[in-house]
Amino acid sequence: MKKTATVNSLLLAFAICFMCPARGLSQQPADNVLVIKKCNDFELTGDGSASEWNKTGWIELTQQGPDKSPYTTRAKVLYSEKGLYFLYDCVDKKLNAKLKGDFLNIFTEDVAEFFLWTDEAYPIYFEYEISPLDYELPIIVPNFNGRAQGWLPWRYEGEKKTRHATTVTGGQKESGATIDGWKAEVFLPYRLLSPLNNVPPVSGTKWRANVYRIDYDHGRTYFTWQKIEKSFHEYEKYGTFLFE
């Protein structure tokens, strides 16, 4: 009888532990998972002043090499029925940006970027770059065996075209200007991602992704959401966007 009571007590204790979360264990997503809140579509101003941005919090991008910088970078991400919204807030002191035109190698200058890997079955993802001067580079990247090759969008107009805007604080939005920082907003329509699988996202959809910035004030400094080793194209190291 005493043995039976002891067994029953152990079973009860196990059941309680199984059904109730342990104290002290976080119920928040892991650091490599970002819950993407849903929003209404809105106009971009380049400064993040739209009220819809209040629906989500900032993510801090971690500084990586090769060169160190005193600057910081943070970003926000939202999604709507029509597409994704990105907001960057970049501390900076000099605009190292001379290229004036879309589809140029703006990654050789100050730039903010994001990469979206929507279907892990295939090593193909979307890359987007925007400069503080408000020029962009949107490409689809097939990456087979480490050979990443970018393809530009065809008939890039109408509902396929992005919307974007940038602003600068503490100075002029011009090459070489002394400033306090710059911001960028981007709207990415799902229509532009139509060659990729698992698009558009719905509640519960998961995409692998990463968020970046490059600054050239102190050599070349990378800021990343998820840590990479050598290249922004290390897609297996990306985190996860979980759509709410």
Main beta sheet: strand number and arrangement? 6 strands, mixed, barrel
> Taking Cα atoms only, what radius of gyration do you get, to the nearest Å?
22 Å
Low-confidence stretches: 1-29
Give the amount of beta strand, in percent.
Answer: 35-45%
Strand order of the largest sheet: 1-3-2-12-11-13
User: What's the number of domains?
Assistant: 1
CATH topology grouping: Immunoglobulin-like
Mean pLDDT: 89
Q: What is the helix content?
A: under 10%
CATH class: Mainly Beta
Count of individual helical segments: 1
**Secondary structural class:** mainly beta
Number of E strands:
13
The CATH level-2 architecture is identified as Sandwich
Shape: globular
Order of helices and strands: HEEEEEEEEEEEEE
The separation of the N and C termini measures 51 Å
Verbal overview:
It is a single chain. A 6-stranded mixed β-barrel has the order 1-3-2-12-11-13. It has 1 helix and 13 strands. With 244 residues, the chain is mainly beta. β2 and β3 (73-79) form a beta hairpin. The chain has a single domain (29-243), classed as Immunoglobulin-like.
